[in-house]
Amino acid sequence: MESSLATSQMSDEIVCFCGQSSVTRTSWTANNPGQRFRSCSFYGQPDAWDYYSWVDPPPHPRYKAIINKLLRKDNSKRNDEQQLRRLVKCYQIALEVFLLGVIIQKIWL
Sorted alphabetically, which PANTHER family does this protein's record hold (predicted)? Predict the structure, then answer.
């Protein structure tokens, strides 16, 4: 199963093959956005069981399209914010270099 960015909570309802309580997680993959599933509490780790079962029915295609579009917009905004932060940092450095040059020029004159 594809997994990326999954939120989770403990669930005592189902026990995994390893004997640990299963965990309810939320998938944020393109194929299953917002769909909850139960898995081994060690899911994603090298020695974890491959156990998982869906809690929610498969999402409607329209729901998938809307959620994926919203996720792309959110990611785009995050990227824009990161670019703005880098740009501000560059301007701060440029301003500091300029001011340092002005101070050095005044000292030498």
Answer: ZINC ION-BINDING PROTEIN (PTHR33248)
Q: Which residue has the tokens 């002005």?
A: 102
> Can you spell out the DSSP letters for the chain?
----S-EEEEEEEEE-TTSSEEEEEEE-SSSSTTEEEEE-TTTTSTT----EEESSPPPPHHHHHHHHHHHHHHHHHHHHHHHHHHHHHHHHHHHHHHHHHHHHHHHH-
Q: What pLDDT is recorded for position 13?
A: 62
Q: Please write the tens of the pLDDT for every residue from 62-81.
A: 888 888 888 888 777 777 78
